[in-house]
Amino acid sequence: MNEVAPKVGLVTGAGSGIGRATARELARSGAAVAVLDIDESAAAETTEMIGKDGGEALAVTVDIADEHSVRAAVERTVTAYGGLDLAVNNAGVASHRRLDQMTLGEFERVVRVNLAGTFLCMKYELPLLKGGGAIVNIASNGGLYAIPHAPAYVAAKHGIVGLTKVAAVDYAPDGIRVNAVCPGPTRTGGFERWAGDTDMIARQEAITPLGRLATPEEVAAAAVWLCSDAASYVTGIAMSVDGGRRA
Predict the structure, then answer these.
(1) Does any domain span residue 247?
(2) End-to-end distance of the chain based on CA atoms, in angstroms?
(3) What PANTHER family does the entry give (predicted)?
(4) Structural domain boundaries enclosing 118
């Protein structure tokens, strides 16, 4: 049901975590995938993994906070594969600091990467998708409700959900579907580094009805489904993938 072949996909932040899992799942579903990441070596590792799985992928270095870099990365994808059908905008940065302890520079950086970066990606993806295509923005459950000590992150993720909904309405006449996936805590390397040696993971699992954190592959499965023809009548949603925490 989640077959996306023969199409061209693009995934940002695909050098690790949810982005890597999404790029690999898109490739397994039959798409050629541009693997975009600010870390050149991480993008190359993901591309190598896809190749070993028998898929087709291209590593592209990008800084989503820089418009020239985003435009060049999208153009390189189109040059390599002849077009673009699907995009998963996953790249972002985390921030954990109370509002009164945060500098303006830190706030602006988080919003610039997460929200403005998603905007820039969509700006250059959408014109290529006219006639039919899909975009999935990876937001967060922090785009649906508050996360303590994360004001910039939550503000940016709420903004991504808003961008998603407006784009879904504006570009529906062009046959473009735009959705968001809002993961709860997910067992990525970044999350585990942030949790450190504390009991954070155990506490997060304890307040999740399914009793565990998501895996990157489970979030990726939702994103790929939204890209696929199986979701052909789904647009403008913010899908929680959170083990029941929003129930």
Answers:
(1) no
(2) 26
(3) DEHYDROGENASES, SHORT CHAIN, ESTRADIOL 17-BETA-DEHYDROGENASE 8-RELATED
(4) 8-241
Look up the pTM and report it. 0.95
Give phi and psi for 197, each to the nearest 5: -95, 10
Q: What share of the chain is helix, strand, coil (3-state, %, to 5)?
A: 50, 15, 35
Cα–Cα dist 34/26, whole Å: 10
- 115-174 pLDDT, tens digit per residue, is 999 999 999 999 999 989 999 999 999 999 999 999 999 999 999 999 999 999 999 999
Question: In whole angstroms, what is the distance from residue 13 CA to residue 20 CA?
Answer: 7
* DSSP E strand stretches across 104-226: 133-138, 176-183
Q: How far apart are CA 174 and CA 142, in angstroms?
A: 30
Q: Enumerate the active-site residues.
A: 153
Q: For a pLDDT cut of 90, what percent of the chain falls above it? A: 89
Helical H segments across 95-195, by residue range: 104-111, 117-129, 151-171, 189-195
Residue 56 maps to a domain: yes
Place of tokens 């696929």: 228
Would you say 73 and 61 are in contact if contact means Cβ atoms under 8 Å apart? yes
The DSSP secondary-structure symbol of 214 reads: B
